[in-house]
Amino acid sequence: FAPYLGGGILAMLAMMLLGIPVYVCATASVPVAVAMIGAGVSPGAALVFLMTGPATNAAALATVWKVMGRRTALIYLGTVAISALASGMLLDYVFQVGGVTLKDERVTMLPNWLKLVSAVVLLAVLGWALVRPWLHKHKEMPVEDQMPTHALEVRGMTCSNCAGIVQRTLLECPGVASADVDLDAATATVAGRDLDLAALCAAVAALGFEAKPVGGNDQA
What we know:
Elements lengths: L1 H4 L3 H11 L6 H14 L3 H13 L2 H11 L1 H28 L14 H26 L11 E7 L4 H12 L4 E7 L4 E6 L4 H9 L4 E4 L7
Antiparallel strand pairs: 1-3, 1-4, 2-3
């Protein structure tokens, strides 16, 4: 449907209706926006999608509505929507006034050696990100040092990046010694002492996901 949208306020509203209810990772939304621009959507409309997609989703709005109230949820939604529309209109205006035209050209701007070094660094970072949880998970602990574990049900995760963000957030919470997130099962297993499950759920909810303790699955 992208070729039929083009630009203007209607295209931006369509992008907003698409981006607000559905959660799209900030990383994943960029190639989607580029594809939309290539299909004929204006840069301003694509920007609206980039801003509303990662910032809002149905689960986050429901959580804010439940925890902070209707007024706060409406203010949050209105702020995101107005900011996205204003930014999209401003970007299209800049393109129009400046006479900027989009061209399908691929320009090589970096030397080969820099691209090679960057690729090696990226692979090293990705490799460490994959190995680190495995090392932490398989680290032996004495029986007397083992801590109680608690299971949380986490809804709204759509990719491994989401699971990684949830895991890092849980590890930063007070008292958490380890955290393991299962994307397929939509659960997070947290180990630690004197854990505040409500605080853990609130930390996950602040990311835009729904979290609650799994009843009867807490293990001492």
